[in-house]
Hints:
single chain, two-stranded antiparallel ribbon, little secondary structure, 14-stranded mixed beta sheet
Amino acid sequence: MGIMCQISIIHLLWAAMVFCQYEDYDFEDEYDERPDHQHPYYFNPNTQAEVPRSPFPVECARECFCPSAFPLSMYCDHRKLKTIPNIPSHIQQLYLQNNDIEVVPVGPFTNVTFLREINLSHNKIKFHMIDHGVFAKLSNLVQLHLQHNELEEFPFPLPSSLERVLLGFNKISRLSGNALEGLPNITMLDLCNNFLDDLVLKGRPFSNMKNLMQLNLCNNKLQTMPPDLPSSLMYLSLENNSISSIPENYFNRLPKIIALRMSHNNLQSISRNTFNLPNLLELNLGHNKLKQVFYIPRSLQHLYIEDNDIEIINVTLMCPSIDPTNMNQLTYIRVDQNKLTIPISTYAFFCFPHIRTIYYGEQNVNVNKSTQLRIPVFRRFLTHEEYDEAEDDQERHDHETEDHDAEDNYFHPYF
């Protein structure tokens, strides 16, 4: 009798298990009459996504936050910290921006081996308060943010793994001769808004950076073009310096340049073939002292020469010949705040068949009074879509020019 009871209990349990399985199974998934709307077998919209378990221990400094969704990141920003907390060994991204940190000691980084990004921007760090070699031993570090601090000198040594270094808005006026040696992987270097002058760059510190693609040197104290830049360079920012001339053959060894920004300098003239660059798309020479235009490459799309002393736009200088098989790509010109009294010659539309907008704005014909040409903005295409797009572009460019906040006056680090 006891054996029969046990068998009955087992039978009941088995039946209940089978019933539950049928209850959980969604037959509609298999027999959906609308196969076009079926989800792939690997995606179930009714299943809540789960973060895969991290192989690392869940460990975090008590002053910081380590979200389970990002187990390799530690957020310690905006917490009024004065010291760097101990960093767990598994952390890869460390965010310490917007604090009151003054010292970067070796201690907190002792057991760190996987760290790839450090953000120490917006603190009070000085060069001599960074322990020697604290960053150099981080062999996996790719990105280092130290902008908006009080650095007087370029921090070194740095690990050879680095690809992006952001040092804008400091007080850097010194660059050790070997500070940039042993950094073959750097692609982006931001040194805007510092105190760098021609003497500091005399030693050609960037010449061996063979993978450098973006160099930001805006808002410094340069009077001449930085010497011996690497041929890999694609983006060069030199706004708000005191550069008065560009050697005619300066860009011969920089054929990959895509964007060049040199507004707010003291340029007075441009040699004919200065910008004979096959890949140049954007050229900004606004707010200088130019008296005439210059040759522009066929690849150029956006040209900014506002706020100069140009009295007439000589299209022949800009476009000495027309090649039907290789037409100029220029679409936008900004020439406001010059000394123009007549619009650009219609010959420009043969040279630049893709031109969409010429922005004349106000002209400084008289010393004490600005005037407008009859057509302040010329638009070649007048469809509603193209008109709205051009209007949006112009408003954006106006805003960028009027906004003299130094932080917005150079290439965004993430190009």
